[in-house]
Structure formats: structure tokens, C-alpha cells
Amino acid sequence: MSETNLPGTLGDKDNSSSGGGAQPPPAQLSPLSIQAASLVRSIEGLSNIFWISLGGTFLTIFFAGLSQLDTNATTDYIYLGEYQVPRSILPLASLAFALFTFWMTANRLNMLAFVLGTTRLPRDMVHEIFHLNPPILHVFDQANADPWRPFTGVGVLMFNWAVFFGNSIALTVATAAQQGASLADFDIPTLAIYAVVIIVAIVYGIRSIFPPLRTILGILHGVDFNVGWLRQVGALLVVFGVYATNNADLFSDLEQADDLLGPSIANAIDGDTLFMLGVEVELFGIDAVEKDQVCQDRSGGDYPCGRVATQALQLLIEQNDVICNPLFNVGEARVVAVCELIVEGSPVPATPDQFIEGYRPNNLSRLLVEQGHALGVGIGRQVFADEQLQAQTLRNGIWQGSFEPPPSWRASH
User: Do residues 110 and 37 both lie within one domain?
Assistant: First the structure.
């Protein structure tokens, strides 16, 4: 009895071929091979997201460090060589990055949970795949389910995000308050909104990431995953620790922390900095042209606008004492302060509360903007908007011709 070859079987031959030889069967993939490949790809994709989140944390550390190293308290930028990074972008970019990475992490975890929940791979093979292709930090090891072991892969991820948010909050405070720069336009309601968004981002991360993580650990090891209060408290401590470290200068004690500086004679160091009572005082809310800066006058000729600005400040203070309300430190014996001239007949504030009450026409920052030697920065853009518009309209000082904004000039010199 002869053997019959059926089409599509290993014994099938192509009798029409010129060679008459046997043809190999069409390539076929085993369903188990496909499932194994899907599992490997899901793990690899999750590892990539973890690397991205770690990289984002290192970037926030880098920019927070640069922000602390920058001793010019009135600038709106962090300088990277010839490039300027606006401070106002950094906190918002940090939040956007956090939300995006949380979403991607949750997406990948849900994908992995689905693959594990529907696979027909033997349990031993699944564990072998995780052993040979582990996601970074080993977040799916059984030890992660133990809430009393903080230094597992899950603990390290939580530590990573705590550092990230600590730096992000520190960048916001440095931008809105300590540096008096752009987000400065950050008023209290805006800061409150930012705080709410931070909380929303953290809650979103917790609610989107931990449920699929709990599912995966349950499938793999038959355990009920619990973050544990030890990890939670540790993460909160890291957030506050990183924030406090980045803003240590902001909370350090001033020599006259509860009092005013002056009245006293003062000298101009440059167009927006005084020296009085052994302290360098940066005028809050403005950025004057630099001492060595050159601008163009009405006819297009060069003139030393930086020296003119320094002389203008010296002229204001040489006939009158100055009193300042220190706001915060930016270095040793260096503060940012609101200062005004003690003019005969004008009331002299005795406390910081009296200092900030009402309109103060002899405010040095206001006078320098009005004369056209400085620009309002940060909250100064709002406070001195009318004075700057008046200087621009009357073509006072640097507005008489063309000039390079001080931040750009500093970056190029």
C-alpha cells in the first residue's frame, strides 16, 4: 500500500518543480514562542521606561545644582555655556515629565500584567524569562512584596521619584521666591495651583502604577503586594530632605533676620548692587545693565551704559542714607533686599511690616527702572511695569538707543 502525501504536511512534495525534489514546509511560529517573545518585549519596554525616569531625576539634580551655584539672584536664567535655560521652564517641564513617565510606566505595567494573565507558558518558563531578562532594579522579585524591606527594587524606584519631586519643588521655590525671577510672575494663587498639580501627579502615579504592579507580583509569586508605611515615610522624608538641601540658603538666618538693614550710608558696586554695613545687597525685582556693558545711544554710537548705571545708583545714594528690608540670603554676607532712600520729610519705616505697606516712591529699584538703567525681572515686571513703560516712552537711559538685555550679555561674556 503506497503512502499518500497530503498538502501542507511535512511529507508533501511539489511535483511540478523542475528539480522534483522535496520542498521545506512553510515556516511556522509556535504560539508559545509568540507569547514568550511578547513577555520579553514587555519586560524590555518597562526597563526602558525605568531608565528614562532615572535619567529625569539626574537632570533635576543637575539643574537644581546649577540654580544653587548661580549667585546672581536677579537673573531669570540658568546658564549652560552660551545657552540660557529659563528658570520658569524647569518646574513646569519637571511636572510634565513626571505625568508622562507615570502614564508610560502604568501603560507598560498593564501590558505586562495582561501578557502574564493570558499566557499559556509554563510557570517555570515564565520565571526563567524574568531571570534571564530582568527589568532594571528587579522590581518583580518576591522580596518586593515584603513591606519591611525598603531597599528592594520598588523601594529604589520610590526613592528615585522622591528625589525627583524634591528637586522639582526646590526649583519652583528658587524660581518663584529665592531668585525673584520669572515664575515670579508666580503669585500666591499660581503657586497654590502648582502645589495642587504636584499632589495630583503623585496621586495619579500611585493609583496608576501600584495596582498593575500588585497584579504582576500576585501572578508571579502568589503574594499580596503592599507598599508599606516604612517605604512611604522614607519617600516623604527624602522629598523634604532634598527640598531643604536645595533651599538651605533660603532658610539660613540673616544677621538682622527680624530687623531692617540700616539706615546707613551705602556705596554702589554696580547698577543694582549696594555695599552697606559689611553686606552686599542686591536690589530686588530688577536687573541693571552690567558694569562693563556697552550700549548704543540715539545716534548709534557706543557708550558705557554699565558705568552710567553704576554712577546713577551712586548718585542716588551719596546724599541720602539707605534702609533695606532683607528678604533672603544668596551667599555669605550677600542678601536680596528691597531698599529705599531716606529722604528728608518722608516717614522712616521701623519694622519690616511698615516697610512693605503702601506705595514707596523712593524705592531704589523703582527709581533705577524709571531712569532707564534697569529692567524689571520676576515680580518686578509687574511692580515696576508703569515705570518701565514710562522710561521706554521717554527714551530714558538704555531706551535711548539699542542694548543687549543683561542676561544675554552675561551669557556671551
Answer: yes
